[in-house]
Amino acid sequence: AQSVTQLDSQVPVFEEAPVELRCNYSSSVSVYLFWYVQYPNQGLQLLLKYLSGSTLVKGINGFEAEFNKSQTSFHLRKPSVHISDTAEYFCAVSGIAGNMLTFGGGTRLMVKP
Amino acid sequence: DAGVIQSPRHEVTEMGQEVTLRCKPISGHNSLFWYRQTMMRGLELLIYFNNNVPIDDSGMPEDRFSAKMPNASFSTLKIQPSEPRDSAVYFCASSPGAREFFGPGTRLTVL
Lengths: 113, 111
What we know:
The structure holds two protein chains of two kinds. By secondary structure, chain A is an all-beta fold. Helix content of chain A is 0%, strand content 55%. Chain A has no helices and twelve strands. In chain A, the strands form three sheets. In chain A, strands 2, 5, 6, 10, 11 and 12 form a six-stranded mixed sheet that branches. Chain A has a four-stranded antiparallel sheet with strand order 3-9-8-7, with no helix packed on it. Chain A has a two-stranded antiparallel sheet with strand order 1-4. The termini of chain A are far apart. In chain A, 37% of the residues are buried. Helix content of chain B is 0%, strand content 56%. In chain B, the strands form two sheets. In chain B, strands 2, 4, 5, 6, 9, 10 and 11 form a seven-stranded mixed sheet that branches. In chain B, strand 5 (42-50) and strand 6 (53-56) form a beta hairpin. The model of chain B has no long low-confidence stretch (mean pLDDT 88). Classes of the chains: A mainly beta, B mainly beta. Chains A and B meet through strand 5, strand 6 and strand 10 of A and strand 4 and strand 5 of B.
């Protein structure tokens, strides 16, 4: 079984500032990791995913995440946020055997002008 | 509250058969979403309903897929006929207007 913890339920940040959304997971097996974004009144969209290979993963809209196996973390970062990045962000994990996704509780990113 | 309920949790069927997935949203939530999860494509939004009305079905892959929401407490996703490439985990989620609450998913295997 896996579990995902997103340590911050809300992250307020000013426009053009950098941001990091934290995600830690626990699992007894090797995992795949995902970040999803949900804009207001829309469904989830995949931002990026880590399956294998380079631990630094680049996604859409300038986001990137780094898989740190020793710290069981997969933090999401963006060097300069925009107002349009205001949304809910979900970290998710699945076992590589194809187990179902386990989602974190979500982090609301609020970008202020 | 029991959360979003999906049934069955696992379904194995043969190519060409009809498959019906069921979802009971959280009471009081006015939006319902169907997603498909695969390792290669991640989570894809198939369709969502607002107040039992389909709002956006652009994610439905083809005519073999159909979804209904006859009332506020029940929705179905039907695949007819099913094909091996439909094998995936199908999630239902409901929302009161802000974030979504996901069900446990149905793992569908089409042989």
